[in-house]
Fold these 2 entries.
Entry 1:
Amino acid sequence: MTRVPEGLTFDVNLSILFTGLPLLERPAAAAKAGFDAVELWWPFGGPDPSGAELAALRQAVEDAGVRLVGLNFDAGDMAAGERGLLARPDGSARFQVNIDAAVRLAGELGCTVLNALYGNGPGTDRDLAVVNLRRAADAAAGIGATVVVEALNSHENPRYPITSSQAAFELIEQVDRANVAFLADLYHLHRMGEDVLALIDRHADRFGHVQIADDPGRGAPGSGRMPYGEIFARLAAAAGYRGHVGLEYRHEGPGAFDWRRA
Ligand SMILES: O=C(O)C(=O)CO
């Protein structure tokens, strides 16, 4: 049972929840479940989808009456384990093509958070990542959006080089753009042994977005051992962060959001 204080707003990640439905039916399912905001990993097979594909997604989001509040840039073949293109010499051209399409879609839907995953090694190139992040940030600035950098856990992502809040902060500092911030995915950080309560207390003002799941298992809050009652209380009290909290957990069958009613 998890107490949710006033002042926290949640959105549903439609790439990990409602996956039993076709993509275009998921925004309406989120609305029916009581949400007015959703987020997405890049949902297309390539970096530059057709106008018809983009229009269909836009229509589905608008018809459902929800707002897109987070969108990942194309991160390669996520189902095959790829986790971003930013720093990959063989993926950088694809990332650059995607910047336009992702920023355009985000702009049309009023989405102000764009997540750029770094890319798996071996062979990632830090300088390339910095160049690509600056390009993405400069394009995102044109629609008033922030680009976020996420740390993933190394148990599930053994070849992903950014696996701590500190590593993400260092990259963000190196990029040196006002609209580049940290995506605090509390599940990944907790799996890496970080003290997520202390992170919220000390660094909430550096968060551009927050995502949650419980650890272990990446299920709903309450399914694992993370102190979500306290996490929510600290997030609500933190002076620095007033954005959405993305529900990025797996759940099969009914009851995915019962923890909110508890
Ligand atoms: O790949 C993952 O696990 C993510 O959280 C991507 O945003």
Note: The two ends are 5 Å apart (CA to CA).
Entry 2:
Amino acid sequence: MSRKKTFKSKAGSVSAASALPSANGARPGRPGTALPSPEAPPNGPQQPGRLSFGGGGDFYDIAFKVMLVGDSGVGKTCLLVRFKDGAFLAGTFISTVGIDFRNKVLDVDGMKVKLQIWDTAGQERFRSVTHAYYRDAHALLLLYDVTNKTSFDNIQAWLTEIQEYAQDDVVLMLLGNKVDSTQERAVKREDGEKLAKEYGLPYMETSAKTGVNVDLAFTAIAKELKQRIMKAPNEPHFLLHDYVKQEGRGPFCCQF
Ligand SMILES: Nc1nc2c(ncn2[C@@H]2O[C@H](COP(=O)(O)OP(=O)(O)OP(=O)(O)O)[C@@H](O)[C@H]2O)c(=O)[nH]1
Ligand SMILES: [Mg+2]
């Protein structure tokens, strides 16, 4: 069987039971040392429509787990910090040890959607640790660095890993990060698009430094996940590929 099919965006639904329970607060991990349990918080029955209070002090209706994966140095931690805090971590590169997570609640079409975002270490030596977390992920953002060809070449290996460890219906998006570094670019936008098309993945170029397309990537994921379990009968079907294509900022429309 062709592997390509595995990553085609699936119109199937995520069962309500696979969303995170809304009343469950996130257990903070100690950055750099402690490894939160893959089951924390556990998946459980969802009560859609009931506004709940999370342990982290945030109100939300429904929660999902999103994982950031990709080679070390592609900008996973910076992307998360940009999304969560609107800031860029410039300066010395501090590689993530193990895994950590941050929460953010988004307003998606009038519903509070909490994303629990797991930032994994890209270094090979932590691979066995992160494997355990894949199975609970509702969505994966797979990153490469547009200034680092090796990180792009490794995408196929990451897809093999995802195929092995993640759920079949996981929402997956490919992101080419550091698009602000125009002088150092080593991977053409068309090559990213081609690879994404080959595997049926939605694709965008992002910059954690300038923030371009960062909110959009997470919002698109949140919309897709929310609609999979909460679609109103008369609501038009959300098309993730079309949405990112339509909303994404690129060299022809905007400055990086
Ligand atoms: N120019 C530019 N630099 C970036 C961007 N994102 C991250 N960086 C830089 O790239 C380096 C690595 O970023 P991280 O976010 O720590 O990389 P990571 O993927 O989390 O790496 P690991 O934790 O080892 O897996 C840092 O020096 C960042 O400042 C970006 O969008 N543009
Ligand atoms: Mg990191």
Note: The longest helix spans residues 214-230.
